[in-house]
Amino acid sequence: MRVRLTTRDTVTVLETVKTLNAHRDAGTFPHAALAAVRALIPADHYGYNELNLRTRRMTALVEPDDAVPVEIESLARLMREHPLFAHIRQTGDRAAHAISELIAPRDFHRLTVYDVFFRPSSIEDQVACILPGPPWLVVALVASRGRPAFTERDRLVLDLLRPHVEQAYRACQALALYAEAGDMQERATVLLEDGVVQAASERAFAWLARYADWDAERRALPEPLAGWVREQLARPDVDHLPSSRRAPLVVEQGGMVLEFQLVRSHHPEQCLLVLEERLVELDPRRLSELDLSTREAEVLRLVALRLSNEAIADRLSISPRTVGKHLEHVYDRLGVSSRQEAVAVARERLRAGGPRSGSAAADRRVGWRSGTLAGLPEHRREPRADLPGAYPLPTRKPG
């Protein structure tokens, strides 16, 4: 017989989902997920469990914390006997199921895992659903109790809750990735799921357009960046942890360097690209594009390396007074009044002007184009509320 939720159940589910979607702290997300389950399903205790199939170790958050008198490792050693785990392994089914649904009580009581774990914990039934994770990690939301057995209604509300838990989990992991990326003042970020761009900072839009001829409406990353991301994600030598990082990809174009760093998420389909742009060094030949003389360009290059006037004079075999005169001319041409301003304005103007024409051959070696940045689309002016500083991609037009 098909179960229908009562009005009270429906209202509780909606209120619980609203509360869960407002949660933004990845560190306390397990507690929030258990609170959601507790609001919907009566049980003796609740668990947020992670079973690592590689190490065969289990970590569990149990509420109340004194509800299970048996060490969780004893359960981990016997997980292959666990009726719910066996069902997941055989079918890949992540939906909510109860032990009482899968096995008769008499057969359940004959299992070693029942004698070692369930009987001492006074557990006669358990209902669980599986959250997304890498293939070697089983993440489960669990409710346990003695009697009565869990009902079809309990399984239904847990199934209704599951996609919202997954969505909240992804949002928390995305925010954790942003935090992991560190200080964003000189960086840009791109959030990926399944290799597809979900959101990006405004600076990332600009840099990808400048370096990679990227069309935001396509959502897919350009090559060779997409190939590098696939290669990094396929490497087996780095654990799927929020803090794990890969070796950076560095692309040089016209004296500018754009570095890509991959930050992995606990979620297997999610990662963050952190972009950082810098000049390799102020090239005197490029500085001549700013209407500086050869000597003025060389002085400014050495100023960018934080050399004093005396050190510059020694390097160029001229007097410190002459260095000062050259800097006065540089200040006049750039419209600045200090060494720091001169370097900053020179970098910005070279960046805004794009790569010089002689860099095209080097760009072709990595398959990326030369060119300057066109205007940014208007849609980037409305940031996503759930990811500070991130801008949604445009909806792709049909056809």
Bin the strand percentage: 15-25%
What is the topology, as strand order, of the major beta sheet?
A: 8-9-10-6-7-11
Q: What is the H/E string?
A: HHEEHHEHHHEEHEEHHEEEHHHHHHE
Low-confidence stretches: 238-246, 354-399
Q: Give the CA-CA distance, first to last residue.
A: 44 Å
Average pLDDT across residues? 78
Secondary-structure class:
alpha+beta
Range of helix content: 40-55%
Number-wise, the strands total 11
User: If helices are DSSP runs of H or I spanning 4 or more residues, what is the number of helices?
Assistant: 16
Computed CA radius of gyration, to the nearest angstrom: 29 Å
Structure description:
The protein has 399 residues and is of the alpha+beta class. The chain has 16 helices and eleven strands. The strands form two sheets. A six-stranded antiparallel sheet has the order 8-9-10-6-7-11, sandwiched between helices. It has a five-stranded antiparallel sheet with strand order 2-1-5-4-3. A hairpin with a 2-residue loop joins strand 6 (187-193) and strand 7 (196-200). The longest helix is centred in the middle third of the chain and has 29 residues, at 152-180. 32% of the residues are buried.
